[in-house]
């Protein structure tokens, strides 16, 4: 049987519960425990797949094709493990299960109620991963903020489990904010006191309080929080703002968050954590030797969470290359033929982002053309790959009206077309081509060189595909399908061998990049950008010398 750690949040949202949960998990993993994390979200969508990125940031896709909350990305990046559908549960999914059972008559005439039927289903799912025998510790992050109407059934389920399970099998960690009032030069504990009081009123008493703060707490404040919130002073943990999320596990180690949890779980003997690889990564991240600028061409750039996994993959790939990756957001809607050179000036590489719908499409195509013609390293992901195909069709193959049927259903040259099996689908939720699929790489391609193997698997989330009827035309004109699904022949990668680095992928390599296993395509893209940057520097030095002579 596993032990359970619950992480709740108070005072305000966006305190970084996911990062605290992932950091705690990392420390426990580094001490040799088998750990996983799951997230319970209080919204009614069955999963976040139908949410606009502006609502909730990126939708993270797991190996088994679940569309999940972006915190699962943090869990995988920190722990270097795969999560699955079971790791993300929403109110919508809970109700769907209970209502389906009701319709099947499974409740035998009973009135179906929030307590016990909804809470029973929540508890069943909270315990699920722990009963499989694969984990020693299961961490459950409860989305939302204590006091929200929506999260009440989840908090009630935690209360029941705290009561039902042996004392030494459950820990509740409550994350709060200690605001610093600049005018008074004071840290304020009252919001935390209120938040813990509210949690206690629902019957859940936290064992540990983690306090997000801009200023060090100091012993007096810690004692005050401990006294008023009824926990031991050592169970008040300071979580100072960090320069990078990857530093948080080390901050939590210093504050002994993991040891306090383990002691509450009655685990008294445990080894020192092995964080050698983690610290090695952090060192490289903090002390880069040079810098590259990458243009991120997208339409959701106002909201950084929309491209979370891509931004994190750049961090992993930058560290391994010992460069700082400066990401320059370029709004695709405002790129025109006239301003493209100016907008992309000084960049060492371009990443054209995934996306849906017509808005900002032409700007993406213009950006691709600029990268192709100027031999600027180019990396297109999903929609980005589709735009690269359209650009090549229009400007090299001469198919002037080439398009994707997603944006133009009437195009005479649908070089990107809806997948056959998608055509009969009417429902929106969970119906794309999702999750991990195999891909066979052409042995004479850059993609093969980058991966160092022929058979790979990567994760997907799309409805449209490269139209194979055009493949011959593309290949005869210098764009090659360097990766294909071995069973269906669907094109997974397009590249231009005569370009130093021009790769478009139909899948999402960013979803598998972790601290310990950075995604190969990102690593090589950053290496290509570094090379481009060095070349540009030597060209301008030569020009300067010429001018001086
Ligand atoms: N809209 C495109 C499709 O559905 C691309 C999707 C994506 O970028 N994730 O195929």
The radius of gyration is 25 Å
**Based on helices, strands and strand pairing, what is the structural class?**
alpha/beta
Instruction: State the helicity in percent bands.
Output: 25-40%
Tell me the total number of β-strands.
23
Low-pLDDT regions: none
* Major sheet details: 9 strands, mixed
Short overview:
With 549 residues, the protein is α/β, with parallel strands linked by helices.
Structure characterization notes:
- This protein has 549 residues and is of the alpha/beta class.
- The protein is built from 18 helices and 23 strands.
- Strands 13-12-14-15-23-22-21-18-19 form a 9-stranded mixed beta sheet, sandwiched between helices. The protein has a 7-stranded parallel beta sheet with strand order 5-2-6-1-7-10-11, with helices on both faces.
- α14 links the parallel β14 (349-352) and β15 (378-381).
- The radius of gyration is 25 Å and the shape is globular.
- The chain starts with a strand and ends with a helix.
- The mean pLDDT is 94.
- Glutamine binds next to β19.
List the helices and strands and how they pair.
Elements: E1 3-9, H1 17-30, E2 35-41, H2 53-56, E3 60-61, E4 67-68, H3 71-79, E5 88-90, H4 91-103, H5 114-131, E6 137-142, H6 152-164, E7 170-177, E8 180-181, E9 186-187, H7 190-201, E10 208-213, H8 218-229, E11 236-240, H9 248-254, H10 257-264, H11 276-286, E12 290-298, H12 308-321, E13 323-331, H13 340-343, E14 349-352, H14 361-373, E15 378-381, H15 383-395, E16 403-404, E17 414-418, E18 433-441, H16 446-451, E19 455-462, E20 464-466, H17 471-476, E21 480-484, E22 491-495, E23 502-505, H18 520-548
Parallel strand pairs: 1-6, 1-7, 2-5, 2-6, 7-10, 10-11, 12-13, 12-14, 14-15, 15-23, 16-17
Antiparallel strand pairs: 3-4, 8-9, 17-20, 18-19, 18-21, 21-22, 22-23
Helix pairs in contact: 1-3, 1-9, 4-5, 5-6, 11-12, 12-18, 14-15
Glutamine is lined by residues 354-356, 382-383, 406, 461-464.
């Amino acid at each position: 049987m596993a032990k359970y750690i619950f992480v709740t949040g108070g005072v305000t949202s966006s305190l970084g519960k996911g990062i605290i949960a992932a950091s705690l998990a990392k420390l426990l993993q580094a001490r040799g425990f088998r750990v996983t994390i799951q997230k319970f979200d209080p919204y009614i969508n069955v999963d976040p797949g139908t949410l606009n990125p502006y609502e909730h940031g990126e939708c993270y896709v797991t190996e088994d094709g679940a569309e999940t909350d972006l915190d699962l990305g943090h869990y995988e990046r920190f722990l270097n493990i795969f999560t699955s559908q079971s790791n993300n549960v929403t109110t919508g999914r809970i109700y769907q299960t209970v209502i389906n059972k009701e319709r099947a008559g499974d409740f035998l005439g009973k009135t179906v109620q929030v307590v016990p039927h909804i809470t029973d289903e929540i508890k069943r799912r909270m315990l699920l991963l722990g009963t499989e025998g694969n984990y020693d510790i299961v961490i459950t992050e409860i989305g939302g903020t204590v006091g929200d109407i929506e999260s009440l059934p989840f908090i009630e389920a935690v209360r029941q489990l705290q009561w039902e399970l042996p004392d030494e099998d459950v820990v509740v960690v409550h994350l709060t904010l200690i605001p610093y009032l600049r005018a008074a030069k004071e840290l304020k504990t009252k919001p935390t006191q209120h938040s813990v009081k509210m949690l206690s009123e629902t019957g859940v008493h936290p064992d540990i309080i983690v306090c997000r703060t801009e200023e060090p707490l100091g012993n007096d404040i810690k004692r005050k929080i401990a006294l008023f919130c009824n926990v031991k002073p050592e169970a008040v943990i300071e979580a100072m703002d960090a320069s990078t999320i990857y530093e948080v596990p080390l901050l939590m180690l210093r504050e002994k968050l993991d040891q306090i949890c383990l002691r509450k779980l009655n685990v008294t003997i445990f080894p020192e954590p092995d964080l050698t690889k983690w610290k090695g990564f952090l060192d490289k991240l903090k002390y880069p030797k040079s810098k590259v600028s990458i243009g991120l061409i997208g339409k959701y750039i106002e909201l950084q969470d929309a491209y979370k996994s891509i931004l994190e993959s750049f961090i992993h790939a930058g560290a391994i290359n010992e460069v700082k990756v400066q990401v320059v957001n370029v709004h695709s809607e405002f790129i025109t033929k006239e301003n493209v050179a100016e907008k992309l000036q000084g960049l060492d590489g371009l990443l054209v982002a995934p996306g849906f719908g017509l808005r900002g499409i032409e700007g993406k195509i213009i950006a691709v053309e600029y990268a192709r013609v100027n031999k600027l390293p180019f990396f297109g992901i999903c929609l980005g790959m589709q735009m690269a195909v359209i650009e090549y069709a229009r400007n090299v193959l001469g198919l002037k009206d080439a398009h994707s049927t997603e944006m133009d259903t009437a195009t005479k040259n649908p070089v990107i077309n809806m997948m056959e099996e998608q055509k009969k689908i009417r429902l929106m939720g969970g119906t794309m081509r999702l999750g991990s699929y195999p891909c066979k790489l052409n042995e004479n391609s850059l993609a093969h060189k980058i991966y160092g193997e022929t058979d790979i698997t990567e994760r997907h989330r799309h409805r449209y595909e490269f139209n194979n009827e055009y493949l011959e035309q593309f290949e005869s004109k210098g764009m090659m399908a360097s990766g294909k699904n071995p069973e269906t022949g669907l094109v997974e990668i397009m590249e231009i061998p005569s370009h130093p680095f021009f790769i478009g992928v139909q899948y999402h390599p960013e979803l598998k990049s972790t601290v310990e296993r950075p995604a190969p395509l990102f690593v090589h893209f950053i290496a290509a950008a570094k090379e481009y940057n060095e070349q540009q520097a030597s060209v301008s030095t030569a020009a300067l010398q010429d001018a001086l002579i």
